[in-house]
Amino acid sequence: MEQSFCPGAWLSLDEGDNELFVFIGYFVAAIQTVFPNFGAQISALTQNVTGPSLPTVSNYLLYEIDQIEQDFVLVLDDFQAITNTDIHEILWGFFRYPLPHFHLVLVSRHKPPLQILKLQAQSRLGELRANDLRFSETEVAAFAEKALPFLPDAATIKSLAEKTEGWPVGLRLATIAIRRWGLDEHQPAVLQVDNQYIVEYLINEVLVRQAASIRMLLLKTSILDRFTAPLCAAILNSEAVEQKILLQLEREGMFIESLDNRREWFRYHQLFRELLYEQLTE
User: Fold this and answer.
1) 3-state secondary structure of 104
2) 211 and 181 assigned to the same domain
3) Are 118 and 90 in contact (CB under 8 A)?
4) How many other CB atoms are there within 10 angstroms of residue 2's CB atom?
5) How many Cα neighbours within 13 Å face the side chain of 274?
6) Residue 108 lies in a domain
């Protein structure tokens, strides 16, 4: 947003923001960081004891944002935490009736429950997935040169690129580790699976959030370089592992990617697979 010279606000969401008027309050407050006079009418409306109807809230919000005559961006981060269908309906209004100066960005671990295909077909929505956000080796070098207190050599850059596979969060965690503990001559990028930053992130942000059956699937299949649904079933001694489970994990950004056009073969991100295997063998 800084490079686009377009003002913007960032709202990080969690499960506690699923009450409609709590969400609207944070939504308005985020825009007020850019336009302090925004939101007087919608704020007064939502404080009404009886509570306005959903269409009324949506119309007021659309109207007040439409009064802003300057381009701006609002980013809603961790949108997967929002499960309230009323909130989904409010946001869908911005796609049904696009405003000329308002640009809404949803950051989510899986596809939001909106009519995305319809919007894409109408060229009204762009989508960036994990592969689009991967850093090339050149970008890894540029990032590391800014993040580290010294100029990293070619071996360190190569190790960082290979280990993280261009994963931005992994790069950030790796450079934090290097700054704290320095470089090891045998592991130049200090990017082992026992790195506490990487372990804590992957366990707390990814693994523990899964249902027990999915955790077991992830752990037991970590012994495989690549896998299919039938192969997973064989490893789990299960009658079947449905293909749609693997596809769903891929859509949810679970560090898994398909390897063929038919999307039958999959593999884990190297760091994630190493973590899973470590957890399995403990």
Assistant:
1) strand
2) no
3) no
4) 7
5) 12
6) yes
